[in-house]
Write a structure and sequence with these properties.
alpha+beta, Arc Repressor Mutant, subunit A, two-stranded antiparallel sheet, about 10% strand
Length: about 110
């Protein structure tokens, strides 16, 4: 099986609800909002349009039926945003699931291809 020795495996977890999907991009967005304190700054950091980031947020909030981002509308100094408890819970659960699946996939890949 030497022909596979140079190969590796990667995983990407996508969760769906009513035709909408979210995955690593949405989770990264929530982490960026947490880091930046702003949806606009998070969008810039990810090099994603501001409109697309709001669509991602709306999609996940529609799926969860609760807010994941708490917004403070801007004034002269701009708005702010923070992650809600539901948002933190989603990040934690997604990261745990992704780590478990990655570990399992790596183990199975090693069994089959190495």
């Amino acid at each position: 099986m030497k022909r596979y020795k140079h190969m590796d495996i990667s995983t990407k977890i996508i969760i769906g609800h009513n035709g909408s999907e979210f995955g690593p991009g949405t989770i990264r967005l929530l982490k960026e909002i947490d880091r930046c304190g702003s949806v606009r700054h998070a969008a810039e950091a990810m090099e994603v349009s501001y409109g697309k980031t709001w669509k991602m947020i709306r999609d996940i909030e529609d799926a969860l039926k609760e807010p994941v981002v708490e917004r403070q509308q801007g004034g002269p100094r701009g708005g702010s945003a923070r992650i809600t408890e539901a948002g933190y819970d989603l990040i934690r659960r997604y990261d745990l699931l992704a780590a478990d699946i990655k570990e399992y996939a790596k183990k199975r890949f090693e069994e089959e291809f190495k």
